[in-house]
Amino acid sequence: MDFAPRSQRAIEPLCGDKPATVDFYKKEMRRLLADAEFSSARLNAIDEAVIDGYKQRRARQPSRHGKPLSVASINRELATLRRLLRLAQEWRVLDRIPRIRLLRGEHNREFVLSHAVETRYLEDAPQPLRDVAVLMLETGGRPGEAVGLQWPDVRLQTAVHAKRGYIVIPGGKSRNAKRNLAYSARG
Known about the structure:
By secondary structure, the chain is mostly helical. The protein has helices at 3-15, 19-34, 36-39, 48-60, 71-90, 115-124, 129-139, 143-147, and strands spanning 154-155, 164-169, 179-184. α1 (3-15) runs antiparallel to α2 and α2 crosses α5 (71-90). The radius of gyration is 22 Å and the shape is elongated. The model has no long low-confidence stretch (mean pLDDT 84).
Protein backbone atom coordinates (compact mmCIF):
# COMPACT_ATOMS: atom_id res chain seq x y z
CA MET A 1 0.00 0.00 0.00
CA ASP A 2 1.31 3.43 -0.89
CA PHE A 3 1.07 5.17 2.45
CA ALA A 4 2.93 8.43 1.70
CA PRO A 5 0.42 10.27 -0.53
CA ARG A 6 -2.50 9.16 1.62
CA SER A 7 -0.78 10.25 4.83
CA GLN A 8 0.13 13.64 3.38
CA ARG A 9 -3.48 14.20 2.32
CA ALA A 10 -4.64 13.19 5.80
CA ILE A 11 -2.32 15.55 7.66
CA GLU A 12 -3.80 18.67 6.05
CA PRO A 13 -7.37 18.21 7.37
CA LEU A 14 -6.02 17.19 10.79
CA CYS A 15 -3.71 20.21 11.03
CA GLY A 16 -5.19 22.51 8.38
CA ASP A 17 -5.51 25.43 10.76
CA LYS A 18 -1.77 25.14 11.50
CA PRO A 19 0.11 25.54 8.21
CA ALA A 20 3.51 25.34 9.92
CA THR A 21 2.57 21.91 11.30
CA VAL A 22 1.50 20.73 7.85
CA ASP A 23 4.78 21.99 6.37
CA PHE A 24 6.74 20.27 9.16
CA TYR A 25 5.11 16.89 8.47
CA LYS A 26 5.59 17.24 4.71
CA LYS A 27 9.29 18.06 5.18
CA GLU A 28 9.83 15.15 7.56
CA MET A 29 7.92 12.82 5.24
CA ARG A 30 10.20 13.80 2.34
CA ARG A 31 13.21 12.94 4.51
CA LEU A 32 11.77 9.55 5.42
CA LEU A 33 11.00 8.76 1.78
CA ALA A 34 14.46 9.89 0.61
CA ASP A 35 15.90 6.73 2.20
CA ALA A 36 15.67 4.15 -0.60
CA GLU A 37 15.68 1.08 1.65
CA PHE A 38 13.07 2.51 3.96
CA SER A 39 10.76 3.90 1.29
CA SER A 40 10.80 0.61 -0.66
CA ALA A 41 9.61 -1.39 2.36
CA ARG A 42 5.96 -2.38 2.40
CA LEU A 43 4.01 -0.65 5.14
CA ASN A 44 3.25 -3.86 7.01
CA ALA A 45 6.94 -4.85 6.78
CA ILE A 46 8.14 -1.82 8.73
CA ASP A 47 9.25 -3.28 12.02
CA GLU A 48 11.82 -2.53 14.69
CA ALA A 49 14.68 -3.93 12.54
CA VAL A 50 13.76 -1.73 9.56
CA ILE A 51 13.53 1.30 11.83
CA ASP A 52 16.88 0.52 13.49
CA GLY A 53 18.48 0.25 10.04
CA TYR A 54 17.02 3.63 9.13
CA LYS A 55 18.42 5.15 12.33
CA GLN A 56 21.89 3.76 11.62
CA ARG A 57 21.91 5.02 8.02
CA ARG A 58 20.70 8.48 9.03
CA ALA A 59 23.28 8.73 11.82
CA ARG A 60 26.03 8.19 9.22
CA GLN A 61 24.71 10.87 6.85
CA PRO A 62 26.05 14.41 7.07
CA SER A 63 23.80 17.40 7.58
CA ARG A 64 23.50 20.08 4.90
CA HIS A 65 26.40 21.82 6.67
CA GLY A 66 28.65 18.77 6.32
CA LYS A 67 28.53 18.00 10.05
CA PRO A 68 27.08 14.83 11.58
CA LEU A 69 23.29 14.84 11.54
CA SER A 70 21.97 15.86 14.96
CA VAL A 71 20.14 13.45 17.23
CA ALA A 72 17.25 15.95 17.33
CA SER A 73 16.88 15.86 13.53
CA ILE A 74 16.71 12.08 13.47
CA ASN A 75 14.30 12.06 16.40
CA ARG A 76 11.90 14.45 14.60
CA GLU A 77 11.88 12.03 11.65
CA LEU A 78 11.21 9.10 13.97
CA ALA A 79 8.42 11.01 15.74
CA THR A 80 6.85 11.71 12.34
CA LEU A 81 7.11 8.04 11.42
CA ARG A 82 5.47 7.13 14.73
CA ARG A 83 2.59 9.51 13.97
CA LEU A 84 2.18 8.15 10.45
CA LEU A 85 2.13 4.54 11.61
CA ARG A 86 -0.44 5.40 14.26
CA LEU A 87 -2.60 6.95 11.55
CA ALA A 88 -2.28 3.74 9.53
CA GLN A 89 -3.41 1.75 12.55
CA GLU A 90 -6.30 4.18 13.11
CA TRP A 91 -7.34 3.67 9.47
CA ARG A 92 -7.15 -0.10 10.06
CA VAL A 93 -4.37 -0.48 7.50
CA LEU A 94 -2.05 -1.91 10.18
CA ASP A 95 -2.93 -4.22 13.04
CA ARG A 96 0.27 -3.57 14.95
CA ILE A 97 2.72 -0.73 14.94
CA PRO A 98 6.34 -1.26 15.85
CA ARG A 99 7.82 0.37 18.90
CA ILE A 100 9.90 3.35 17.87
CA ARG A 101 12.60 4.33 20.33
CA LEU A 102 14.03 7.80 19.93
CA LEU A 103 17.79 8.24 20.05
CA ARG A 104 19.38 9.34 23.30
CA GLY A 105 21.56 12.38 23.65
CA GLU A 106 19.26 15.05 22.30
CA HIS A 107 20.32 18.47 23.56
CA ASN A 108 17.49 20.83 24.42
CA ARG A 109 18.15 24.48 23.96
CA GLU A 110 17.45 26.55 26.98
CA PHE A 111 17.87 30.26 27.41
CA VAL A 112 17.31 32.02 30.68
CA LEU A 113 16.95 35.77 30.41
CA SER A 114 19.24 37.52 32.88
CA HIS A 115 18.03 40.60 34.73
CA ALA A 116 20.69 42.71 32.97
CA VAL A 117 19.53 41.62 29.51
CA GLU A 118 15.88 42.03 30.53
CA THR A 119 16.49 45.60 31.70
CA ARG A 120 18.44 46.49 28.56
CA TYR A 121 15.76 44.95 26.31
CA LEU A 122 12.92 46.80 28.02
CA GLU A 123 14.82 50.10 27.83
CA ASP A 124 15.44 49.67 24.09
CA ALA A 125 12.11 48.13 23.03
CA PRO A 126 9.66 50.52 21.35
CA GLN A 127 5.99 50.58 22.30
CA PRO A 128 3.84 48.48 22.13
CA LEU A 129 6.56 45.80 22.08
CA ARG A 130 7.75 46.93 25.52
CA ASP A 131 4.30 46.39 27.04
CA VAL A 132 3.97 42.98 25.41
CA ALA A 133 7.42 42.02 26.74
CA VAL A 134 6.49 43.15 30.27
CA LEU A 135 3.28 41.13 30.04
CA MET A 136 5.17 38.03 28.95
CA LEU A 137 7.82 38.47 31.65
CA GLU A 138 5.21 39.03 34.36
CA THR A 139 3.00 36.09 33.42
CA GLY A 140 5.33 33.61 31.75
CA GLY A 141 3.08 33.73 28.70
CA ARG A 142 4.23 32.67 25.25
CA PRO A 143 4.57 35.14 22.35
CA GLY A 144 1.59 33.67 20.48
CA GLU A 145 -0.56 33.89 23.59
CA ALA A 146 0.39 37.53 24.18
CA VAL A 147 -0.27 38.52 20.57
CA GLY A 148 -3.64 36.72 20.50
CA LEU A 149 -4.85 38.30 23.72
CA GLN A 150 -8.28 39.99 23.69
CA TRP A 151 -9.63 42.49 26.25
CA PRO A 152 -12.30 40.08 27.58
CA ASP A 153 -9.42 37.74 28.55
CA VAL A 154 -7.84 40.34 30.87
CA ARG A 155 -9.15 40.43 34.43
CA LEU A 156 -7.95 43.70 35.93
CA GLN A 157 -9.95 43.30 39.12
CA THR A 158 -8.21 41.03 41.52
CA ALA A 159 -10.13 38.21 43.09
CA VAL A 160 -11.19 38.62 46.69
CA HIS A 161 -8.68 35.99 47.87
CA ALA A 162 -5.84 37.15 45.59
CA LYS A 163 -3.79 40.31 45.36
CA ARG A 164 -3.15 39.92 41.66
CA GLY A 165 -5.05 40.13 38.42
CA TYR A 166 -5.00 37.39 35.83
CA ILE A 167 -5.26 36.75 32.14
CA VAL A 168 -7.32 33.93 30.66
CA ILE A 169 -5.47 32.07 27.91
CA PRO A 170 -8.30 30.34 26.01
CA GLY A 171 -5.93 28.01 24.13
CA GLY A 172 -2.30 27.73 23.30
CA LYS A 173 0.33 25.25 22.30
CA SER A 174 -1.98 22.28 22.67
CA ARG A 175 -5.73 21.78 22.53
CA ASN A 176 -5.95 21.61 26.31
CA ALA A 177 -3.79 24.64 26.98
CA LYS A 178 -6.51 26.79 28.53
CA ARG A 179 -5.06 28.38 31.64
CA ASN A 180 -5.01 31.49 33.78
CA LEU A 181 -1.83 33.54 34.10
CA ALA A 182 -1.51 35.70 37.18
CA TYR A 183 0.21 39.08 37.11
CA SER A 184 0.98 41.63 39.75
CA ALA A 185 -1.46 44.51 39.76
CA ARG A 186 1.19 47.19 39.84
CA GLY A 187 0.88 50.14 37.58
